[in-house]
Amino acid sequence: MQPAQTDLAPPKDDPFTLEQLKQFDGTDPTKPIYVAIKGTVFDVTRKADTYGKGKSYNLFAGKDASRALGMSSLKPEDAVSDYSTLSEGDLKTLNDWFDFFSKRYNIVGKVTDLPPPGSASDSATSAL
Ligand code: HEM
């Protein structure tokens, strides 16, 4: 584990739609890489070796990956925002990841169009 960053910038509140977030999935090396958790967008560019194209955690990049983080899943179909069906334990895991990212990465904004919990447009099953 690396120590928490001590030089984080004040959180920004820029709006991102899920569609806009997709640009920041590491495919374009000239753009930053973002991961959103519970609608909060984190800039993970300094760990491009982890989240960049072809890297182990690229599945979380350019999206709100709350569900997969809570479930400790690396399945791309789980990397969606809806965490409404997670167990208590998985919700705790999700919140622990939120804290982990908060301590290490700058917050650049919020996702403005998260689908309502349990809706078909962003549930794990619709991505299959
Ligand atoms: C065989 C299983 C796994 C191994 C060996 C593994 C290994 C690692 C290692 C070595 C790190 C770096 C820790 C550090 O910063 O020093 C890490 C970070 C991480 N792992 Fe895993 N992992 C595994 C499974 C998973 C799974 C199932 C998830 C799904 C949620 C996951 C999500 C993450 C995340 C989000 C990070 C933080 C990366 C960062 O921002 O630095 N890992 N893992």
UniProtKB/TrEMBL annotation:
Coiled-coil ranges (or none): none
Record InterPro entries: Cyt_B5-like_heme/steroid-bd (IPR001199), Cyt_B5-like_heme/steroid_sf (IPR036400), MAPR/NEUFC/NENF-like (IPR050577)
GO cellular component, one term: membrane
MF-aspect GO terms: heme binding
Domain of life: Eukaryota
Domain Cytochrome b5 heme-binding, first and last residues per copy: 16-112
Cited PANTHER family: BINDING PROTEIN, PUTATIVE (AFU_ORTHOLOGUE AFUA_4G06240)-RELATED, MEMBRANE-ASSOCIATED PROGESTERONE RECEPTOR COMPONENT-RELATED
Family: Belongs to the cytochrome b5 family. MAPR subfamily.
Name the UniProt record assigns to this protein: Progesterone binding protein
Species annotation: Lentinus brumalis
Upper taxonomic lineage: Eukaryota, Fungi, Dikarya, Basidiomycota, Agaricomycotina
